[in-house]
């Protein structure tokens, strides 16, 4: 009896010793409770690395974590991709600053929603040239910062159509801060179009160019023409301008100058909803 009891104690001490103590701050513990996180799908550690890989709930699609993938990561791009491939929904927060093994962020390509307690941060990954999150549709949280990347050329979030803030904070308070170091840094036109369509979302802290869209689509034009829905380039409307050419335009990625045109003609700007110009 005593012997069996000792075995029992030993077995349990061992399993307690195996799993390291949670590194979560209380505020996150509360946030996870509020969000009904499944115990099994909480990753309670701050970093992802080779030593802690086995504790990552890799089979969960909805993962709760204050997740940081930093420069010290000792996993390869493939290992990280494999680890995160089922993660579709992240509750908690996300900070990424990978090392020179990483040129892109394919390891987050299946991520669809981020419900973040803190601002999302993609910072100081000097070797990333592109950030594309093809599946991302939804962000709920206080803000998003992409900055201090030496080689970053393009960011692209083609399906990000829903951005909201916690509780009743106004969407105008959602802080998007995208800053490129390279002169050619650009944000894809699809991303800008999505941002424009989110009513009230402010983009005045997006510093960069708008990447040229794919002109194979006949609705995307460089010059006003019948049928264009998006125009990439500045539009000058003078006295002899064919207003009909702007009839179906919804967005101009550039400036619109009206110079000497009759005002009643401007009523033909029926569908124009957005003019997108970014600061450098
Ligand atoms: C790995 O990550 C864990 C969890 O945050 C951390 O406690 C540990 O110090 C890290 N180990 C190494 C070698 O970086
Ligand atoms: C995850 O799923 C795989 C394949 O379905 C299974 O072999 C593995 O045991 C699961 N791991 C955990 C931690 O549940
Ligand atoms: C947008 O996201 C919020 C939560 O983040 C969700 O409640 C809402 O239903 C979503 N709206 C749409 C149109 O998907």
Automatic annotation (TrEMBL):
Q: Signal: is it a keyword of this entry?
A: yes
Domain Receptor L-domain: from-to ranges: 59-141, 227-277
- Signal peptide from the UniProt entry: 1-17
Q: What is the protein name for this chain? A: Receptor L-domain domain-containing protein
Which SUPFAM superfamilies does the record associate with it? Answer: L domain-like (SSF52058)
Keywords in UniProt for this one? Signal
């Amino acid at each position: 009896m005593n012997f069996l009891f000792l075995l029992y104690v030993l077995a349990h001490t061992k399993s307690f010793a195996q799993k390291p103590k949670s590194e979560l701050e209380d505020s996150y513990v509360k946030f996870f409770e509020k969000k009904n996180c499944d115990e099994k799908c909480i990753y309670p550690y701050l970093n992802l690395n080779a030593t802690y890989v086995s504790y990552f709930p890799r089979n969960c699609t909805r993962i709760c974590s204050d997740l940081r993938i930093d420069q010290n990561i000792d996993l390869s791009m493939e290992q990280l991709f494999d680890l995160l491939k089922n993660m579709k929904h992240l509750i908690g927060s996300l900070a990424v600053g990978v090392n020179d093994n990483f040129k892109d962020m394919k390891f987050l390509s299946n991520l669809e929603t981020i419900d973040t307690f803190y601002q999302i941060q993609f910072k100081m990954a000097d070797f990333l040239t592109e950030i594309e999150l093809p599946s991302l549709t939804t962000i709920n949280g206080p803000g998003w910062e992409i900055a201090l990347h030496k080689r970053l050329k393009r960011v692209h979030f083609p399906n990000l159509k829903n951005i909201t803030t916690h509780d009743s904070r106004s969407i105008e308070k959602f802080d998007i801060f995208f800053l490129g170091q390279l002169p050619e840094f650009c944000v894809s036109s699809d991303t800008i179009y999505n941002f424009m369509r989110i009513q009230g979302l402010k983009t005045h802290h997006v510093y960069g160019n708008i990447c040229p869209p794919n002109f194979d689509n006949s609705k995307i034009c460089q010059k006003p023409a019948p049928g264009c829905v998006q125009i990439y380039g500045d539009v000058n409307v003078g006295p002899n301008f064919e207003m009909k050419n702007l009839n179906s335009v919804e967005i101009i990625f550039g400036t619109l100058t009206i110079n000497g045109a009759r005002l009643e003609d401007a009523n033909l700007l029926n569908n124009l909803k957005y003019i997108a110009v970014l600061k450098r």
